[in-house]
Write a structure and sequence with these properties.
By secondary structure, this protein is of the alpha/beta class. The protein folds into two domains: about 280 residues, pyruvate-formate lyase- activating enzyme; about 70 residues, Orthogonal Bundle (Arc Repressor Mutant, subunit A), CATH 1.10.10.10. It is built from 16 helices and 17 strands. The longest helix has 17 residues. The relative contact order is 0.15. It binds iron/sulfur cluster.
């Protein structure tokens, strides 16, 4: 890691000084900057799910008492402070993730998007996604988000089976899951449904039924994740009984077959889209594009012509709000990606894509010569994990199955 400037600098002025430092010639040379998206983190949830390792917190006084006003002010301060890092760059997509962004009122979302539009040049047809939890559904809420300027709703259904949802510790049941999907489809053309498989005690038939139900709704996009036990979660401490590897692999095969039969194309490990409905924000992320992340615990990756910088905001909502109120920097960690780490960082994202990436993109996004990865590509190809042609590089089916092994080949010694 290359620390560049001290991160405990004073607010907006400090970020401007940092931007000056970032603009100096660095260890790499980017011919052009990649597309930029904006991520806004809303860090609260009604209840913490036992499998979740995201930066999500139960508010001590309950979800009805979120400090919405203070958080909107903090986000405005955060974005203003970050502007010197992205001067003159257009924003292609906005993503409100969490946590549970659907805890916000539609008036708050409207104010937030108004603030974003006033401060950054947003593309006229920018995709603006909000993650919604079925457990936060209130009459008219999703329609209010649409009127506020959200163009794509991502509904965290996870399952349509009440027993499975209860075992996952979700705050909604099957009835609410269906009601949320129906409300989303009534207000939005562009709807993503999040599903999970490999759930505690889940049978093949139950996983299949969840998928059939999701597909019958004809959403624009499906994100289908395999439940994994992440460190520092309740499930890691008290592991539930999960389907074995063979069953999980059969569920995955069923997902790939059924989604394809219904006209969805898998374009990333967990993402399936109807034609033209890939998530622009996520695609940019997987293509090693840039993203500015604001809000508690949000991560950013910002490119300059001579370096690529990562930042993380203060993680605890209370700490983030305190720093914003004191008008001091919200950046808790910051480092420049060392050139030797860029091949791995690039591959960590790009090899998740089913079609891989154009050869030229590696140099465009990392500023490194393609020769840097030639030996690793040879090894990966010899192991049957990767295929290449003069224009593209993409993972084989085996490479996607053993993705960690494939990505690790690009790690610096
Ligand atoms: S609702 Fe989502 S972000 Fe919140 S705790 Fe559950 S999994 Fe985590």
């Amino acid at each position: 890691m290359i620390p560049i400037v001290p991160v405990h600098r004073e607010g907006v002025r400090g970020q401007a000084q940092a931007a000056d430092a970032f603009l100096l010639p660095g260890a790499i040379r980017l011919a052009a900057l990649p597309p930029l998206t904006l991520y806004i983190h809303i860090p609260w949830c009604v209840r913490k799910c036992p499998y979740c390792d995201f930066n999500s917190h139960e508010h001590p006084e309950g979800a009805a008492h979120l400090p919405e006003r203070a958080y909107l002010d903090a986000l405005a301060f955060d974005l203003e402070g970050a502007l010197p890092l992205i001067w003159g760059r257009r924003v292609h997509a906005v993503f409100l993730g969490g946590g549970t962004p659907s805890l916000l009122s539609s008036a708050a979302v409207e104010e937030l998007l108004g603030m974003v539009r006033a401060l950054v040049p947003l593309e006229a047809d920018a995709e603006v996604t909000l993650e919604a939890n079925p457990g936060t559904l209130e009459a008219g809420k999703f329609a209010g988000f649409r009127r506020a300027g959200i163009t794509r709703l991502s509904v965290g259904v996870q399952s349509f089976n009440s027993a499975a949802l209860a075992r996952l510790g979700r705050i909604h049941d099957a009835r609410l899951a269906r009601a949320a999907v129906e409300a989303a489809l009534a207000s939005f053309e562009n709807v993503n449904l999040d599903l999970m498989y490999g759930l505690p005690e889940q049978t093949l038939a139950e996983a299949h039924a969840d998928l059939e139900t999701a597909l019958d709704y004809l959403p624009a996009h499906l994100s289908i994740y395999h439940l994994t036990l992440e460190p520092n979660t309740v499930f890691a401490k008290f592991p539930p009984s999960l389907p074995d590897d063979d069953s999980a692999a059969t569920m995955q095969e069923d997902i790939e077959r059924l989604t394809q039969e219904r006209g969805f194309a898998q374009y990333e490990v967990s993402a399936y889209a109807q034609p033209g409905r890939q998530s622009r924000h996520n695609l940019n992320y997987w293509n090693f594009g840039d993203y500015l992340g604001i809000g508690a615990g949000a991560h950013s990756k910002i490119s300059f012509s001579g370096r690529i910088v990562r930042q993380v905001r203060y993680r605890q909502p209370g700490s983030y709000l305190e720093h914003a109120a004191a008008r001091s920097s919200l950046v808790a960690e910051e480092h420049e990606i060392e050139p030797r780490d860029l091949p791995f960082e690039f591959m960590l994202n790009a090899l998740r894509l089913v079609d891989g990436f154009a050869r030229a993109r590696f140099s465009e996004r990392t500023g490194l010569s393609g020769l840097e990865i030639a030996p690793m590509l040879e090894v990966a190809e010899a192991k049957g994990l990767l295929r290449t042609d003069p224009l593209r590089i993409w993972p084989t089916e085996r490479g996607r199955r053993f993705l960690n092994d494939l990505q690790t080949l690009f790690m610096a010694d």
